[in-house]
Amino acid sequence: MQIVFQDPFGSLNPRMRVGGIIAEPLAIYGQDDASGRRRRVSELLEVVGLDSTFAERYPHELSGGQRQRIGIAAALALHPSLIVADEPVSALDVSIQTQVLNLLMDLRRRFGLTYLFISHDLHVVLHMSDRVAVMYLGEIVEVGSRDAIHREPKHPYTQGLLAAIPVADPTLRRERIIPKGEVASPLAVPSGCRFHPRCPFAFDRCRVERPALRDLGVGQQAACHLY
């Protein structure tokens, strides 16, 4: 298991050249000699769309998208089967986001990777994922396949998230589900359902009883008393 961090500038050692950053996991785990690690660094740079000359550069000499590619290359160094991608494109410009997302999807097919992809951008989540878990205040409120979540979200919070995604067609009108108030502090979690102070469908039971994650029989689970 490896991880790709949200901020590529903060996650790369500014005192090390790119080649040293990518080779560091190999050195720590005693893989290859120095010349073998240099070859592996060149291979990994090529895999993420950069040439071998980048090995001699420092992180501050690179763009945000290039730095994130270096982070991905370092994560691939030890042949992981699972990569945790923690908001990997949120710190990048929109045009660069697409390039990095396409790279991640290509690497998934090429190396048979599994991603745990964490993001607040549901549009990106639906583009990247096979299965989706929606969280509110640190708790999973709905789980289902990407298509099921997109087509028929069950939890009011998921419905609100999907309704907030911009639609390119200006003639298309859809019902907006707008949560009330502000998100509660994790240090003062509401009793009962954590979403009930903001939920337009809340009733008395929601205020006192915490809902369990229930199987709805359609490939989805939701933690909501409406079901």
Overview of this protein structure:
The protein has 227 residues and is of the alpha/beta class. 38% of the residues lie in helices and 14% in strands. The chain contains nine helices and seven strands. The protein has a four-stranded antiparallel beta sheet with strand order 4-5-7-6. A three-stranded parallel beta sheet has the order 1-2-3. Helix 2 crosses helix 3 (34-47), helix 2 runs parallel beside helix 4 (64-76) and helix 3 (34-47) packs across helix 4 (64-76). It starts with a strand and ends in a 5-residue tail after the last strand. The model has no long low-confidence stretch (mean pLDDT 92).
Keywords:
227 residues; elongated; alpha/beta; 4-stranded antiparallel beta sheet; 3-stranded parallel beta sheet; 14% strand; 7 strands
Helix count from the secondary structure assignment: 9
Mean pLDDT: 92
Specify Rg, calculated over alpha carbons: 21 Å
- Class from secondary-structure proportions: alpha/beta
**Beta-sheet strand percentage?**
5-15%
Q: What letter string, H or E per element, gives the SSE order?
A: EHHHHEHEHEEHHHEE
The N- to C-terminal Cα distance equals 36 Å
* Poorly predicted runs: none
Count of β-strands: 7
Biggest β-sheet, characterized? Answer: 4 strands, antiparallel
Strand order of the largest sheet: 4-5-7-6
Helix share, percent: 25-40%
Instruction: Please state the overall shape, judged from the principal axes of the Cα atoms.
Output: elongated
